[in-house]
Amino acid sequence: MKQLRDRWPSKSSFILAAVSGAIGVNALARFPAEVAAHGGGAFFIPLLIAVASAGMPMMALEFGLGLCYQGSIVECMRKVDKRLEWIGWWSALLGALACACAVGFMAWAGVYVYDSAMALLANQPVPWAGDASVAQGYLNQYRQAAPTEDVVSSIARIKPVGSLLLALVLVWLLLYWAVRRGVPFLSDLISRLLPIALVIMAIFVIVIFRQHGLSAVDGVAQYLEPDWNALLRMDTWIAAYGEAFRSLLLGAGVFVAYASYRNRSDDATATAGIAVCAGIGMLFLLGMVASAAIGGAAAAMSQPTSDLLTGDFDAVFAVLASAVADIRIVSAQAVVSLLLFLALFLFAFLSALALLTSFVTALCDKFHLDWEATTARACAGGLLVTSLFSTNLGFDIRLAIDELSFPFGLALCAAAQCLTLGWGSDGVRRHLNAYSVFPVGGVWWSMIAVVIPAAFLAHFIVKVQQWLHPGSGGYGSGATFAAGVLPAVTALLIALSLSFLPRRGSA
Amino acid sequence: MKLPSVHSVWIVIALIATLLGVGLLARAKSRDGVIYSLKSYAVEKNQPERKAIEQFAGEVFNGELGKYIVDEKVVTAAYNVLKQTEVAEASRQRLELYAKNLLEREIALAHSDDDLLELGDRLLALAASPDRGIYRGRIAMMSKEREAEAAALGQLAHAVSRNAGAPEGDAAFAQLVESRLRFTAGPHAWVLRQNPAIASAVESADAAALQRFKVLLQQAQTSGPEMTPRLRDAWAGLRAMKLQDRVEAAERTYYAAQARVNALPPAAFNIAVCVLMILVGGMAYAIRSVIKGPIPIDPGAETLENVEPIDFDTDAETLEAAKHRSTRVGGESHDTTMH
Hints:
The complex is a heterodimer.
Chain A lengths: L1 E2 L7 H12 L3 H4 L1 H7 L6 H26 L3 H8 L4 H38 L9 H9 L10 H6 L5 H18 L2 H31 L1 H11 L9 H14 L6 H6 L9 H32 L4 H5 L5 H11 L4 H38 L3 H16 L7 H31 L2 H9 L6 H27 L8 H24 L7
Helix pairs in contact in A: 1-10, 1-14, 1-17, 4-5, 4-12, 4-14, 4-20, 4-21, 5-6, 6-9, 6-17, 6-19, 6-22, 7-16, 9-18, 10-14, 10-17, 11-14, 12-21, 14-16, 17-18, 19-21, 19-22
Chain B lengths: L4 H35 L7 H19 L6 H11 L5 H21 L5 H13 L5 H10 L5 H16 L6 H16 L4 H5 L2 H28 L5 H12 L8 H11 L6 H27 L39 E2 L6
Helix pairs in contact in B: 1-3, 2-3, 4-5, 5-6, 7-8, 7-10, 8-10, 8-11, 10-11
C-alpha cells in the first residue's frame, strides 16, 4: 500500500506554473502608482537590488523546501523542526487571505466582463464609456465612496450587493472545478490560460498606442522618468523590498507547494531564476502598459498624467476602463473592454489557483484528507469569508486587506521563516547544492538569515509607526487595525492552534 | 441519488449564496421600481392611477420613517407625491419630526456621524422646516473649539495671498495645505463646514491657493515652457485640497499640456533598456542552464541528515504520464505496479 503524490507532467509545465504564480494583477492595479510615488524610473534600481537580494534567494528557498521535504510549507516547517509548524500554518493562512483578495478582484473583473459582453450583444456603448470620472462613477455605484475613519460607523453602513455575491459564487465554483482535479489538470489549464492572457495584453497594448499615441508615450515617460533623490529616502527601499515579495507571491508557501509536486532531484535555483525574472519582467511590462493607458486617459480628461497615476481614481476599474471606453466604434469598444477585463480576470485566476493549491496542499499534508473533498471545503469556507467583499464596502476592504496584511502578516511571517531556516537548519542549502544548477553559499545564506529579516522588520516598524501616528500617511489607525493587525493576529492564533492538532497518518 | 456529505455542504452553501445574491439583485431592482413608480405620479393623468400611487406613496413613506435610517431617495420620491395630496401637512410634520429626532440623537453623541447629521439636515430642508436654522446653529456649535485654529488658517491664507508669486510664500503655502486638510479631510468635514468662522477661513485658504497657482502659471507662460518646481508644488497642493476643478478650464488645460512630454526622455529609455536586458538576460541564462542538464548528482551529498525520512513515495516516474489523476497527497493507493 503506497501513498502517492501527483507530479507536474514535465519540467516545462512546472516552470510555467511557477511563472504564472509569479505574475500578479498588482502590476496593473497598484504598481504604476507605487513607482510614481517612489522616484519613477529610479525605483527600478532598489527594486532590482531587492529582487536579487531577497526575491531570488527566497524563491530558491521556497523551491528548495518543497523539493527537499516534498510537502506544503506546513509540512516542510514541521520536518525541519516540529516546533516551527506554526510558522508554516501562519504562512498558509495568510496565503489563503491573499487568495480571498485575488478572488475579490476576480469578482469585480467578472462583473465588468459581464457588462462588456452585454454591451457587445446589445451593440451599445459600455456603461463606463467616457472619461475616468465617468468610469469612477460607474465603479462607485457598487461602492461607498470612501470608508470613514470610524470603523464601527463604516461597518454599520455595510450593504450587500447581489451581483457581486453571484460573481463570487461563480468564481469559487470555477476555482473548485480547476483545483479539484489536481496538479496535472492545473498544468494543462495554466499552459492554456497564461498565453491567452499574455496575447490579450499584447492586443491591448496595440489598441492603447493606436488610440492615444503621444499621450500614451507621456504615460510611459512619467512611469520611467527617474527622480534620483528618491534613492536617498528609506521608504523607497522599504517599498522596493515589499514590492519584490508581494508581486512574486513570496512568503505564502505557494512555490513550496508547487515544488513539492516535482521530483526531489529537480533543479531549484535556475527555476527560481526563471520564475523571478519572468515575474518581475512582466511586472515591469504590465506596469508600462498601465501607465500608457493612464497617459491616454489623462489626456482625454485634460489632466496631468501624474494626477491619475497617484490620484483618487482606481487604476484598473476607472482608468484602464476609461482608456478603452473612448474607442468610437461601439462593438470594438465592447470587444476591447471584454478582452481587457478577461485578461485581468485570468491573471487573478492564476494567482488564486496557486494560492488555493498551496492552502489545500497544507491541509491534505497535515491531516491526510481527500484532495477533492478538501478543495470543496476550502472553497465553501472561502465563499463565506469573501462574502464580505460582496458589499458596498467590499472594494475598499479588499484593497485595505491586500495592502495591510503584508507588513503585519506576510512580511513578519517571511522574516520568521528566513530567521529559523537560516540560523536553525542547513538541510535546504545542502539539498540545493546537491541537485541544483547554481550552487548556493555564504552570500545566499546571508541574504536569507540577515537581509530579508532586516528588510521586513524595517517594513513592519514603519507600518507600526504609521499605525500609531496615522497623520504621517497611509490608512487611519482603526482601518489599519481592522484590515492589517486583526487578520494577521487572527491567522497567527489559528496557526498556533492548528500546529497543536495531531497529524493524521504519522504512525 | 445520495451525494457525499462534503459535496452536499458545498452545494448548500453555493445555493444559499446564489439565492441570496438573486434576492439582493431583486431587492435593488424593486427599489428602482418603487422610485420609478413614485416619479411617474408627476406625469400620470389618469385619476384612479394617481389615487393608487398616492396610496402606495403613503405606505412607502410610513414604512421608511419607521426605519432607524431612511433611504433618502425613496423617502424623497414618496414625499414629493404626498405633498401634492390632502395629507401634505401631516406628512411634512412626520418627516420633520423624524429629522429632528435623528439630529437630536446624533448631536447628543460624543462621536456623531457626519453623514447622518447631513442626512438629518437635508430631510429638514425637504420638509421646509422653520427650525432648520436652529439646528444648523447647534451643529455649528459642535466645532466651536476649532475656531482659533480656523483663525490661524485665515492668517496663513493672508500670508500666501500677499506673496502669491514670490518664493517667500512657499513655506506658508505648505503650512496652508496641511492646515486646510485638517478641516476638510477628516471624518467631521461637513460639521466643520457648518461653522461660519471655519467655512470662511477654509474659503480664504482655497482662494489663496488658487490665486497662487494662477500667478505662478502666468509667470511660467511669460518666462518659457519649462515647468517650474514651484508651479508643480502649487498644483500638487491644489490636488491635495481637491481644488483642481475650481481652476479655470483654459488654465487647467494649459498646465496639463505643459506637464505632458511627447517623447521618452533619454534617462527613461536607458532605464527601460537596462531593466529589460537584466531580466531577459537573467532568464535566458537560467533557461540555458536548465536545458543543459541533467546535472550530475553529487553522490556524497547527504541531504536528509537532519530530517526525518520523507513518508511519501516521491518517485516521479510513476505519475509522469498520469495527466488526469487527482492530486493526492494524503490519499491511499493500492497500485502495486510501482517501483
